[in-house]
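Lecture 7 notes: from sequence to structure.
We start with the chain below.
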Amino acid sequence: MRSGYKRTEVGVIPEEWGLSTVGAEFEIQLGKMLDAEKNKGTLKPYLGNKAVQWDKIDITNLPLVAMSASDLRRFRLQRGDLLVCEGGEVARAAIWDAPIEECYYQKALHRLRPRRGYDARLLLAFLRYWTYRGILADHVTQTSIAHLPQEKLARLSLPAPKQEEQRAIATALSDVNDLISSLDKLIAKKRDVRQAAMQQLLTGRRRLPGLGGNWEHASLGSLVRVVGGGTPKTDVAEYWDGRIGWCTPSDVTACRGKYLSATARTITQQGLRASAAQLLPVGALLLCSRATIGEVRIAAIETCTNQGFKSLVCGDRVNNEYLYYAILMMKPRMVEKASGSTFLELSKKDTELLELPLPDLDEQVAIASVLSDMDAEIEALERRRDKTRLLKQGMMQELLTGRVRLV
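Predicted structure tokens for the same chain:
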């Protein structure tokens, strides 16, 4: 251990930091019990457990609960209140910054207010850091659903730097949170712009400069070859861990961006021959037809799929990237046409019968290029946001253990 530091139950901290408890520094109160038969009074909006996410509170479509006069005094939120989830993902927390004038909270949440000036933003940072490190596991009551009772929350040991250092640490981490939040909002805005552009460009309501000509409506079956998938026997070792990608819907949903370049599992040539799977060329569209119906990626490698796909190999009348964006617009129709008793599935016939508006190839390529540029911009912002999140994790590691001092 470095000189000038001490070991505590929440880790190594500077010797000059005090050690307190959450209950000593904060007044803790559970929210309003929801009981439709007993609750009387004025209907008021309230927050439930799901509304409180890490560092943010969702106030869209808030439910209402009848509140008595004493309830209104007891459970009304004030700007700066720290709300901590009592159940579910225990200790998930955010600070109420009063985006609406009046709001209350239910029993699934603890409300914390400082007793003697401890910075609530710093406690929020500690809760997230401790959750990430698994330090809270011993304080959770585990029944069918995990809970963090008030008495256990109150007994949590809490490092106590001087208030000046508390504010400095909390402000530094809050600045990074603000940057992440601004990037999230910008990404959401860019996605909305992209969605609007898709609706305009893929229907011909907006034409790109220098491009004209009539569009046709074509069935998917007239433009592509629809290919199903298969699975080699799982108990035959010779069929697995080869050099051929074997794609499942999980690979598609885990893939960021429109190109799939790796799969979690691979098969051998022997496995390919022994199953209904077919080798798909680079550029084929991997279209999920079960579970996550309508999810699609473009194969960046030669691969095959399991039975959860109706993959599309494009002919010479359609550009695969244009078709990728057209498929995204067609997802609701695919879900609507899916059928089945055990699970919903889009059949090969229904896939082939799907129709889409189709310009000539030059316009297809131009439209795909515009939308691809938008995707590239969004992906660059996502990478920047992810790097900022990693930076925040590193800052928490250094600042919340006192390895780096700001005052």
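Points to note: The mean pLDDT is 94. The first helix runs from residue 22 to 25.
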